[in-house]
Design brief:
The complex is a heterodimer of chains A (112) and B (116).
Chain A: E1 5-7, E2 10-13, E3 19-24, E4 31-38, E5 42-50, E6 65-69, E7 75-79, E8 88-95, E9 102-103, E10 107-111
Parallel strand pairs in A: 2-10
Antiparallel strand pairs in A: 1-3, 3-7, 4-5, 4-8, 6-7, 8-9, 8-10
Chain B: E1 3-5, E2 10-14, E3 19-21, E4 24-26, E5 33-39, E6 46-52, E7 59-61, E8 64-69, E9 74-79, E10 88-95, E11 105-106, E12 110-115
The chains are: A mainly beta (112), B mainly beta (116).
């Protein structure tokens, strides 16, 4: 597609439920990133995929968070047993080697 | 460790005024990339510029210009003749060298309001 696409755009879930957030990167971009934006913490790096290399998961805040990227394209961020502090906007970005990252519009997650 | 500081939390200007957004960074790397992103109310982060630490030339793109000074670790962004559509939150970011933009460290952002 023309840009990075994320779905859903908004998600309200009950505390304790699992959620899946989807990211469709720009076609041909080998790098894919997940960031989280919340009021108190600003923009935080979560995870990075580059081609077929092992992902950099150093930013994942707990083992309730996981992500995968299938076929080098679409990525899914999964949050298990959601907590209220997980409420944030989750942003996905993709880039070509050595270029600026292009971001999607994000998924606003609200845990009630 | 890397750090990006945007000391201006919020700025308001009247349309057609010039405005400069400050960005100061800290890094132990000798090479790095610097970025500016714009986040309008729609929420999407819009890429504006990437600058390699080797290149200290100022850059101008239309009404936008960037002043990179390695000696003061600053990468300031100026909007000339501001317009209402420039109203957004602007983020400065830093990334270490490597295979492309990776693990961006963002500043807290500066919210710019352009008043008609």
């Amino acid at each position: 597609g023309a840009g990075v696409s994320q779905s859903p755009s908004n998600k309200v879930t009950e505390k304790g439920k699992d959620v899946e957030l989807r990211c469709d990167p720009i076609s041909g971009h080998t790098a894919l990133y997940w960031y989280r934006q919340s009021l108190g913490q600003g923009l935080e790096f979560l995870i990075y995929f580059q081609g077929n290399s092992a992902p950099d998961k150093s930013g994942l805040p707990s083992d309730r968070f996981s992500a995968e990227r299938t076929g080098g394209s679409v990525s899914t961020l999964t949050i298990q047993r959601t907590q209220q502090e997980d409420s944030a906007v989750y942003l996905c970005a993709s880039s070509q080697m050595g270029r600026g990252a292009f971001f999607g519009q994000g998924t606003r997650l609200t845990v009630v | 460790a890397q750090k990006v500081t945007q000391a201006q939390t919020e700025i308001s200007v009247v349309e057609k005024e010039d405005v400069t957004l400050d960005c100061v960074y800290e890094t132990r790397d000798t090479t790095y990339y610097l970025f500016w992103y714009k986040q309008p109310p729609s929420g999407e982060l819009v890429f504006l510029i990437r600058r390699n630490s080797f290149d200290e030339q100022n850059e101008i793109s239309g009404r936008y210009s960037w002043n990179f000074q390695k000696s003061t670790s600053s990468f300031n962004f100026t909007i000339t003749a501001s317009q209402v559509v420039d109203s957004a939150v602007y983020f400065c970011a830093l990334t270490p060298p490597g295979a492309g933009s990776y693990q961006l460290t963002f500043g807290k952002g500066t919210k710019l309001s352009v008043i008609p």
